[in-house]
Amino acid sequence: MDSFVEQLTRGAEEEFTEESAWDGSAVRIESSSLPAIHLPVLPRYLQHTTTGGRKATGFQETKTACFNYIHEALLENQWQRAAEFMTAYLETLESTSAEHRMAAPEVVWRIGAEILCHHSKSSIEEFNYFAERIKNVGVKNYLKVCLEHVFHLLCNGLIDDAYRNLSLAEGWRYGEQTAAHDKEMKLIQAYKGLLDYYNWSEKRKAMLELDDDDLAQFVEQEMHSFFRQAAVNFKEIIKIPGVWDPFVKCYVELLEFYEDYDEVRQVLSEYAYNSKFPSNPNAHVYLYQFLKRQGESKKTRIAVLKILHELVPSHELMLEYNAMLQKSKKRKKHRLGLQVIFTVLDFAGWKEHVKAWSCLAKQIKQILENSSKHLYWIMEEWNSRKDWWPAFHFSHHLAKINWQENESLACEKAFVAGILLGKDCKYFRYVSHQGHKAKKGRFQTMKKFVKKHSSSHLRASGVLDSCIHL
């Protein structure tokens, strides 16, 4: 029986395009030098799929059944079984349907690549052989297959091989250039730029270790050559609306190394604010980080984080956003800061974040001590949360866990719980009791503060009524 790769690539050296049929009986490619994946006998009901003289319905049923067996085997990681059915599936592709002819090459590539990536008897040489043959099976898939072949090479650490494949693909031309081909070519060039960046980075590391000035100068020239190649390709890809985070990050690093800060600012601003681009929180993160490195004003940085807050209110940079808002001289910024920290704690990922609870506790304390007229800030935030925060954050069960695992966390949360829910809140009572038993002096101060402020200011607002049962 033919090897799996021979079966998959049968007929590939004939000039197969979407306009020609997938002929399972085409001339075979001999590859005796390659290791073979030998397949056992197929189940009898799929050994001899017949394409001539069958009704279309029977043909489609056979094809669909075979494909479903392959799909099932792939989902269950049964790579040998998938390979067995794949050889039969190739025979079912002898169809005169134009739709099937166009879809066949990509179907074979997708399934075959998946099997070869995981099959225990497969090798990188066999995968390369398959990829090279399949690239010419339906030329409209050439660039797409090239790019995915490169990904496989990179995953196996074959950087030089990947670079060579990208260079070959970059020079590929066939017929009239379509819009789809143009975008795929841009991707090919962008990933080639990514490998140019990698080579630049390796040269930079080597240059730092050199003591010979002449040799260091030569390496620096090589670095600059890689920089120019990478920069050209990166600049082209980020003109196209899309999410290009890996390319943008590398491009920014290159530009900053050569101190082209104006270009960095322009690139990142365009990436973040161009309305043609999809909404991308990372674009605002990259811009903020650059502005921070450049020592830009807090006003400028706050403007960037304001948009990030609207997109991802649980982002880790929200603590920095909150801190800058609290340092502002404007009261409305302080109120916004309170909203930001309350919103952060709405998300489960922040439930046990000590710094976040400390920020909230500190801001609540400042409001209660210094400006009782701003008490409604707290009340407005709490009113939308009083039905679910008690169970989410302040249950008796959580009090036990928090105290056992992190006393600092329990202390900050207990203070907030006491203010918002009153001194009878079970979270506050449990932590206070444990603190008293452990002779922690700070709990006495906390209890006095909570007793004074929660009863005199919050009970009248009806906040306590929602939580006494906890």
From TrEMBL:
Pfam families: TAF1_subA. InterPro entries: SL1/TIF-IB_Component, TAF1A. GO terms for cellular component: microtubule cytoskeleton; nucleoplasm; RNA polymerase transcription factor SL1 complex. It comes from the Eukaryota. GO terms for biological process: transcription by RNA polymerase I. This is TATA-box binding protein associated factor, RNA polymerase I subunit A. It comes from Pelodiscus sinensis. The gene is TAF1A.
